[in-house]
Structure formats: structure tokens, C-alpha cells
């Protein structure tokens, strides 16, 4: 699918960036925006706790093991340039925090009501914010248990204390959505987390009334008789019960904390056009009729800040085509102020038993190409974290390489005033890169880098993310990729709902090297080449760029080569970057194609990773050629790693 460049009129940019330091451009001026590097886009993954799908990986882990696992999920999100996580904190009428309403979740310790020894929700929010990831707390409203035996619930469970609140259906236990006291209780349980923790969002999934089970009826006839009021149709009454929960939660969340986002990820089909002319050109299960979820009304009434329909089908699927539903949902949110993000089926990509379309490494990436046709689509959420990590058939790597090459700001919510522009207080080159410091009043900051030393900031610098290199909640940052002769840095501030300030005054940094030449070649760049024996990994957080390469040692060179254009013969400092690990090689051979013959330097890759390491100064010939190689020929054990090299004229 072709990525067409779109032209964006500068009126919006002028309004956002007018300041004494950034005079307005002509109203007729325009910026050419690259759709592959959008300025704003929600990028998230679901982290499921029910049945230990993602986290914790099993019950009974120690506190340190649980926390290490969760940090690894967040580090994965950062490495894929995501900016949010959606974490299940109330999977089965239980809690991942010390709730006064419901017991501790069994998925933590293996025993419902068992204290895990710390406050997981407080820990998770803090760790997410430390990485500038939004934390959306995910609640399942009605599900009590994935079994139908109330005696298996802890004795203090509200569903045991109020047996009239529950019903069994399809082998599971549910709270009865038609009972007003149940609705109040569910809202209170959710609001306890909202009021006590610094969450950025409240998220409900697609489970409302239970999905239909053949031959069974939902046992709520007596409830309908008591509370049905003027409703002649039980379906309309059930939809109203769900609508009341949605509407009241929306009101209560924003009354307590206006900055908290409220979103729902409904089943992908509202109704089919064959049933309702307002529906989509599909023929699958209708959530309006089957689970009484009137998701279209939630949008039209503005009861949600965002909707994330689970469009878990491939492009061209006859029953429910991805491109058909994306277009339909885009039409529903248009003009409403409700943001649309797409629930993506990462779990299907490359998985055994899935349709042929899902065995194509491009399918998931093609979904995001389709999204670009709809300006209403403001991002994607992937189900689930373990499938993002698995990266079967390289499907998610393709998503990152085609769509997530740069960071992205989160879509702005509401109409709060933007913060004041920050001020860069220092920008200096050091051995590890350019070190920046600034002052400001933002919740977070965006760091932009432009080549050269322009006299003034062009609003087009900030029209998309091509110059965005980092978002952070800190007021310092070291740009380890700053290897060119001259850059100018700008910092913008963002508030809690992501309104962005005008940019700071630019701060220029020039090369400290006499020749002014320095180049970095990463393993993801065109100048890198390696044979099929070299794998790709994102395991270590010390990586340079998006990933790195690894291979087993063998009695053959089979080098991974870093190719560079050396401008003139002379002396050059050669540095290498690699992630370190105790399991990596203690004598990895680096080969430098120096004038007069190759020279080999061995490096212990078990230590000293995550920074530039100096191999020495070498005389290099002019020209474009393989300058540095990583050989596999070593007698020591452990993976040899190829990540990045830096070549600097001295």
C-alpha cells in the first residue's frame, strides 16, 4: 500500500508555535508531512493478567521476580517505540491493589485474597511513568470467575456475600448487570483505583453481558421483572443497563480526575448492514444484539474519550474485512471528538492454525498502511504483550520498521492550556554524546534535533516526528546518536493531557573534532550486512537503536560488516557499541580494515555494554567499503554481538 504524502496547512502549527522566538510563518505556507512519522499516535499493548496470559507469567513468583518481569514488559514497549500500556488490574472481580471492595487477585499468588507482599498497582504506575509510558488501568466489569462454583471464591468475596448479585452462565460466574446495586458496586471498585493511583486511563474490554452459549439463556428474567420498568424488550433493557454503567463511569472518572482518559475496546462489529442500515458491510456476530453493547451510541453520546474496536480480522476477510471496519468506525467517530484507536490481533500473526493471510509477515503492517487513509485513526493497541515479544515471522519487526521508526507524542485530549515553552540551559558534547539540560513546567518533554544550525526555528521542524528523538519526564537527556558535525536542539513541554508548548529557543552544538567528520552505522542501517546465521534480538535494554544482531562462535570468520563512506585518508577513532551480558563472548573479534591490512581487536562483551567503547585510532583509506567487522571466529563461548560502530576523524 503506497504511503502518500499529505500536505498540512500551517494554520494549526502557527497557533501552536507563535512566540517571540518563533515568529509566525505566512498563512499560505505549508509543510509536507511524512505519514510514516506521525507527530501524534497512540501505540500500546495489552498486558493481560487473567490466567497469567502475560503477567505475572505464573502464580507464586517472588516480589522481585514479579517486578523484574513487569519491568521487562515496559522495556519491550519502549524498545518498540510505544508510548502506553494497557494493564489488566481487575480481571475477575478481584484486585491488583489493596482494594477495600474486592479480594487480592488469585493471579498474583495462586490464592484469591493472598497478599502479594507489595502494592502491584502503585509499582506498575511508577515504573511506567519512569519510562514516560501512559498507564491505562484495564478493568473487566462483570466477570466474577472463569468457573461457576461460588464455593471456590474466598469467603469474603462480595459475590458470596450477595448471592443475589450473581448468575452462572456458560460455565462462568457473572455479576448481574441489571441490578442497580451491582452497577454502583462495580463503579465504586473501579473508582477506588482511580482516586488512589496516578493512572492515566480507565479501560474496559469487550466483555459486557456474556457472549452467547448455544442452548442457554441468560438467567435474568426475575431481574427484568423487577427492574425492567417501561422496557418492553429485554434486549433494550440490557443495553440500557450497560449504557448506564458506561455513562456513569464517564461522569465519575472525569469528576474525580478530569485528565484521566476513559476508553473501551468493544467487539469489532456493532451491527451488520443487513440488519441495520447504519451498520457495517459485514456478516459476523453483532455485539449490539449478542452482548448488548451499543458501542456506536457511546461514541455519538460522547460517553468515552476513545474507542478501540477489536478489528481482529485480516484485510479482505469475507465476513468482516479489516479495511471495511476501519472505514466504518472512522465514519462513526468523525466530528464527535472521540478518538479512534484500533485493536490489533498480534496474536494471530504467524500463529499456527491461523488463515493464510496471517502467515504473511506484511499483514499486520498493512493494517497500519490502511489506517493512514483515515485521519480519524489515532493509533493502535496490540493483543497481547507476549505476542509482541514473540514477533512470529518478524511481523511486529515489520510494523516497527515501517511505522514506528521515530517516537510519537500521544494524541491530545480535551482543551487544557499548553504549558509555557521550556528553556534549554546547557547542551554540550561529551564522550557519550550531547548532554542536554532544560527547565520547564511540563509533565513531560519532547526533544527535537535538526541537522545544522538554522537561524530560526521553522514550524515545519515540528509538523511530524522526523526530528523528534526522545520523550521524557526528566529535564536532562544524553543524545548518544549525535555523531554529525552540527545539530540544533529544541525542547517542547507537554501537560498531562498532551497539549504541547511552543518550542524552546534552539541550542546549537557543533563538532569538537578537527576534521568535523563522524558517522555511526547501526545494524539496522543500509551499511550493515550479515549472513543468515546472525539472529536479531531486543533482549537487552543496552541496545543501540531498535535491535542488535547475535551469532554463535564458529571456526570460520563469517563476519557481520559495517560499511561506511570514509571521506579522506587519515587517522580515525573507531568505537563500538554493544549490549553486555554474562552469557555473551569474552573475546569477540572486531576486525578493522585499516590501511596496510586488517587489524583485529578482541572485546569482552560480558561487560562494558550500553556505551561507546574505543577500539583505538587507525589509519583508514578513503572510499566506501566495509570498515569494521565482527567475526564469529573465536574459541571462547557465548554469543558474539554486532550492534553499532562509530568512526570519527581525529
Automatic annotation (TrEMBL):
GO terms for biological process: carbohydrate metabolic process. Residues 41-359 form the Glycosyl hydrolase-like domain. Residues 1-27 form the signal peptide. It comes from the Bacteria. Residues 519-649 form the Golvesin/Xly CBD-like domain. InterPro entries: CBD-like_Golvesin-Xly (IPR033803), Divisome_Glycosyl_Hydrolase (IPR052177), GH (IPR017853), GHL10 (IPR003790), Ig-like_fold (IPR013783). The keyword Signal applies. Pfam families: GHL10 (PF02638), Golvesin_C (PF25275). CDD domains: CBM6-CBM35-CBM36_like_2. Keywords: Lipoprotein, Signal. This is Uncharacterized lipoprotein YddW (UPF0748 family). It comes from Nonomuraea thailandensis.
Amino acid at each position: 500500500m503506497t504511503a502518500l504524502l499529505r500536505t498540512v496547512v500551517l494554520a494549526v502549527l502557527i497557533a501552536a508555535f507563535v512566540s517571540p522566538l518563533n515568529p509566525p510563518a505566512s498563512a499560505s505556507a505549508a509543510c509536507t508531512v511524512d505519514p510514516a512519522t506521525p507527530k501524534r499516535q497512540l501505540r500500546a499493548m495489552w498486558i493481560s493478567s487473567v490466567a497469567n496470559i502475560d503477567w505475572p507469567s505464573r502464580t507464586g513468583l517472588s516480589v522481585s521476580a514479579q517486578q523484574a518481569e513487569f519491568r521487562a514488559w515496559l522495556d519491550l514497549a519502549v524498545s518498540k517505540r510505544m508510548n502506553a500500556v494497557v494493564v489488566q488490574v481487575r480481571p475477575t472481580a478481584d484486585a491488583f491493589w489493596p482494594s477495600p471492595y474486592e479480594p487480592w487477585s488469585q493471579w498474583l499468588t495462586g490464592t484469591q485474597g493472598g497478599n502479594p507482599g507489595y502494592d502491584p498497582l502503585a509499582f506498575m504506575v511508577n515504573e511506567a511513568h519512569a519510562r514516560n509510558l501512559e498507564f491505562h488501568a484495564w478493568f473487566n466489569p462483570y466477570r466474577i470467575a472463569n468457573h461457576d462454583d461460588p464455593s471456590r471464591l474466598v469467603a469474603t468475596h462480595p459475590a458470596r456475600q450477595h448471592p443475589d448479585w450473581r448468575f452462572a452462565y456458560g460455565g462462568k460466574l457473572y455479576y448481574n448487570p441489571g441490578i442497580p446495586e451491582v452497577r454502583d458496586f462495580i463503579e465504586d471498585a473501579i473508582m477506588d483505583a482511580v482516586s488512589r493511583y496516578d493512572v492515566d486511563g480507565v479501560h474496559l474490554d469487550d466483555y459486557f453481558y456474556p457472549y452467547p452459549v448455544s442452548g442457554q439463556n441468560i438467567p435474568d428474567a426475575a431481574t427484568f421483572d423487577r427492574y425492567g420498568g417501561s422496557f418492553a424488550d429485554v434486549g433494550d433493557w440490557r443495553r440500557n443497563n450497560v449504557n448506564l454503567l458506561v455513562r456513569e463511569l464517564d461522569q465519575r472518572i472525569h469528576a474525580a480526575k478530569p485528565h484521566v482518559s476513559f476508553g473501551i475496546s468493544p467487539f469489532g462489529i456493532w451491527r451488520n448492514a443487513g440488519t441495520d442500515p447504519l451498520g457495517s458491510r459485514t456478516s459476523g456476530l453483532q455485539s449490539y444484539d449478542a452482548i448488548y453493547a451499543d458501542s456506536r451510541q457511546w461514541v455519538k453520546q460522547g460517553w468515552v474519550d476513545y474507542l478501540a474496536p477489536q478489528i481482529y480480522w485480516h484485510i479482505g476477510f469475507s465476513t468482516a474485512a479489516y479495511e471495511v471496519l476501519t472505514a466504518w468506525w472512522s465514519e462513526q467517530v468523525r466530528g464527535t471528538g472521540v478518538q479512534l484507536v484500533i485493536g490489533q490481533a498480534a496474536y494471530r500473526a504467524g500463529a499456527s492454525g491461523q488463515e493464510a493471510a496471517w502467515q504473511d509477515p506484511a499483514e499486520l503492517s498493512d493494517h497500519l498502511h490502511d489506517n493512514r487513509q483515515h485521519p480519524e485513526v489515532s493509533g493502535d493497541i496490540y493483543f497481547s504483550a507476549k505476542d509482541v515479544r514473540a514477533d512470529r515471522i518478524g511481523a511486529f519487526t515489520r510494523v516497527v520498521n515501517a511505522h514506528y521508526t521515530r517516537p510519537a507524542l500521544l494524541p491530545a485530549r480535551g482543551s487544557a492550556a499548553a504549558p509555557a515553552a521550556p528553556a534549554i540551559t546547557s547542551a554540550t558534547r561529551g564522550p557519550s554524546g550531547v548532554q542536554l539540560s532544560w527547565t520547564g513546567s511540563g509533565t513531560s518533554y519532547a526533544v527535537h534535533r535538526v541537522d545544522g544550525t538554522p537561524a530560526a526555528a521553522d514550524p515545519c521542524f515540528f509538523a511530524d516526528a522526523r526530528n523528534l528523538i526522545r520523550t521524557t519526564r526528566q529535564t536532562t537527556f544524553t543524545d548518544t546518536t549525535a555523531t554529525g558535525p552540527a545539530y540544533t536542539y529544541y525542547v517542547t513541554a507537554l501537560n498531562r493531557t498532551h497539549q504541547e508548548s511552543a518550542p524552546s529557543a534552539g541550542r546549537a552544538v557543533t563538532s569538537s573534532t578537527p576534521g568535523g567528520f563522524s558517522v555511526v552505522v547501526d545494524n539496522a542501517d543500509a551499511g550493515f550486512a550479515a549472513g543468515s546465521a546472525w539472529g536479531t534480538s531486543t533482549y537487552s535494554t543496552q541496545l543501540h537503536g531498535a535491535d542488535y544482531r547475535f551469532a554463535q562462535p564458529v571456526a570460520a570468520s563469517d563476519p557481520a560488516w559495517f560499511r561506511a563512506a570514509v571521506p579522506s585518508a587519515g587517522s580515525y577513532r573507531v568505537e563500538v557499541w554493544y549490549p553486555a551480558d554474562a552469557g555473551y563472548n569474552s573475546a569477540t573479534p572486531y576486525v578493522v580494515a585499516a590501511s596496510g591490512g586488517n587489524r583485529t581487536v578482541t572485546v569482552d562483551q560480558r561487560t562494558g555494554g550500553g556505551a561507546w567503547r574505543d577500539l583505538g585510532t587507525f589509519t583508514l583509506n578513503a572510499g566506501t567499503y566495509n570498515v569494521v567487522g565482527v567475526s564469529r571466529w573465536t574459541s571462547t563461548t557465548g554469543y558474539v554481538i554486532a550492534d553499532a560502530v562509530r568512526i570519527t576523524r581525529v
